[in-house]
Specification:
The complex is a heterodimer.
Chain A: H1 2-35, H2 51-61, H3 72-88, H4 112-133, H5 137-168, H6 173-178, H7 190-203, H8 215-218, H9 228-253, H10 268-289, H11 295-324
Helix pairs in contact in A: 1-9, 1-10, 2-9, 3-4, 3-9, 4-5, 5-7, 5-11, 7-9, 7-11, 9-10
Chain B: H1 2-20, H2 24-44, H3 48-73, H4 87-111, H5 113-116, H6 138-146, H7 150-171, H8 181-200
Helix pairs in contact in B: 1-2, 2-3
Classes of the chains: A mainly alpha, B mainly alpha.
Chain lengths: 325, 201
């Protein structure tokens, strides 16, 4: 029976994540509109609520072009790598307090957070192979940038998270949330959280770190040649990744489903969703207000600021934990 | 056991794919698949941590640099064939050495105490993948790495460090490499021909 349960959970989760993607997109356009003193999409349905459906239909019926210079096989493979690695993370993200014999995630992996890092690592291939396989110059530049940026920031990101793992003493996501019942890790690991947040924006290629698709310089970066549904897959992957890093930030630093101020009358899952939404709002806020980095500064910032600070934070955490016993 | 054979066939097939492709990028994609299957293989052996680390290190860090280099050199169109082809001469000795090395590994495995011991005598009971404090879990792995296997672990780190310094010493020449004009022309022509050949395919 357990495989049936896994199947139902997967289908349900897929539906939830795709719907969240669709409305995160609308949410983003609305919020950015308001921040820039314009109404945002408001033509399709009440308050523009049917906009995602209209976009989806448009995306489905657009012609799917493959450039003649492209490598056809890898060109077609790349969006799938992006999408599969983006969705894979939801197999283990726990949404609420596990009860005996019943968990709020598809699987409970002991190496939880490492599993998510492994999937993030695979996700880089979608961008870099996609850009390479397009067989034209702007996508290639975009994909070379993407590879360099993502591996540079992944290092600092992993370093910032290890501090949390040391404090919690486990790599399981549910275990880390349990360890935060007394105090959220954002307080003892404030530096770790700051580095995680910055690197997470860079990992998902969102503004101000969207050098990968910098439209002023590279047309649209790695997905310049993609159209129709294949472009849609990259687009979904970007938003799902944003949702994933928001979930991970909530689980690692903001107590997951633990209620603040002891307000336990609101169920854990509601808290979890509210915290994730807060992070998504922060992403949109950043995009609407921050100008794009210059490429050399981005690299210098990653290697000369984030990585050393993350390493020092890790050493300091390890020393404190070792001294306290 | 069925899973073992399916995975084994996939592993060998993807490895053959990697070395038989003419386009470097296809080799990279094949290797990516190979690493993924290898990770699943580790999972079937309850080595969960090893499986995840396999992906993080090899797919996430090492292999992506291959993609990076291929993209930078733009050689994905056709393989470089600068210089005489040494393959026919090298094939037989290399094959022999590889065979001897493989035979030694098989011999070593067959003599290992774990293989010869009766099945019940293995120290830990393999539990469900994902459960804590069972064979292959993160805590178990870390404990073994930093207590009973500390010396090999540190030695490996040292050897890798030596390799990295060696690469820097070899590649990081103080005077830049300037080919003679004749040599430069030959390289340029051969690269152009390689690109043209790739375009015809």
């Amino acid at each position: 029976m357990s495989w049936l349960l896994v199947l139902i959970k997967s289908a349900l989760l897929l539906f939830v994540v795709i719907t969240t993607f669709a409305y995160a997109m609308l949410f983003e356009r609305k919020i950015m509109g308001w921040m820039q003193l314009r109404p945002g999409p408001n033509r399709v349905g009440p308050w523009g609520l049917l906009q995602p459906a209209a976009d989806a239909v448009k995306m489905l019926f657009k012609e799917d072009l493959t450039p003649s210079t492209a490598d056809p096989l890898i060109y077609k493979l790349a969006p799938f790598i992006s999408l599969v690695s983006a969705f894979g993370a939801y197999a283990i993200i726990p949404w609420s307090e596990p009860r005996p014999g019943d968990i709020w995630s598809i699987g409970n992996v002991n190496a939880g957070i490492l599993f998510i890092f492994a999937l993030t690592a695979i996700g880089v291939y979608g961008v870099s192979l996609g850009g390479w396989a397009s067989g034209s110059k702007y996508p290639l530049l975009g994909s070379v940038r993407a590879t360099a940026q993502m591996i540079s920031y992944e290092l600092a990101m992993t370093m910032s998270v290890i501090g949390v793992l040391i404090v919690a003493g486990t790599t399981s996501l549910a275990g880390i949330v349990h360890a935060q019942q007394r105090i959220w890790f954002v307080i003892p690991q404030l530096i770790g959280f700051a580095i995680y947040f910055v690197t997470a924006v860079a990992e998902t290629n969102r503004a101000p770190f969207d050098l990968v698709e910098a439209d002023a310089e590279l047309v649209a970066g790695f997905h310049t040649e993609y159209s129709g549904l294949r472009f849609g897959l990259f687009f979904i992957a970007e938003y799902v990744n944003m949702l994933t890093v928001s979930c991970v930030a909530t689980l690692l630093f903001f107590g997951g489903w633990n209620a603040p101020f002891g307000w336990t009358f609101i169920p854990g899952i509601v808290w979890f969703i509210l915290k994730v939404l807060f992070f998504i709002f922060c992403y949109i806020w950043l995009r609407a207000t921050m100008p794009r980095f210059r490429y050399d500064r981005l690299m210098a910032f990653g290697w000369k600021v984030l990585l050393p600070v993350a390493t020092l934070n890790l050493i300091a955490t390890a020393v404190v934990v070792a001294v306290k016993g | 056991m069925t899973l073992f054979w399916i995975l084994g066939v996939l592993l060998v097939a993807s490895a053959v794919f990697v070395i038989s492709q003419r386009k470097p990028v296809y080799s990279v994609v094949g290797l990516l698949f190979h690493f993924a299957v290898l990770a699943v293989f580790f999972l079937t052996l309850n080595a969960e941590f090893l499986a995840v680390i396999q992906i993080v290190i090899y797919s996430g860090a090492t292999l992506i640099l291959f993609v990076f280099v291929i993209a930078l050199l733009s050689s994905g169109v056709a393989p470089f064939s600068v210089g005489p082809n040494r393959m026919p001469k090298a094939a037989i000795p290399a094959g022999l050495i590889a065979f001897v090395a493989l035979a030694l590994v098989v011999y070593g495995i067959l003599r290992a105490p774990l293989v010869n011991a009766p099945r019940a005598a293995t120290t830990s009971i393999p539990g469900a993948v994902g459960a804590p404090n069972v064979f292959g879990s993160v805590a178990d792995f870390g404990k073994a790495l930093f207590t009973t296997h500390l010396l090999p672990f540190e030695m490996t780190a040292f050897i890798l460090m030596v390799a990295v310094i060696g690469v820097v010493a070899l590649a990081g020449e103080t005077t830049p490499f300037v080919p003679s004009l004749r040599r430069a022309r030959i390289i340029e022509r051969e690269m152009r021909e390689a690109l043209l050949r790739g375009g015809e395919e």
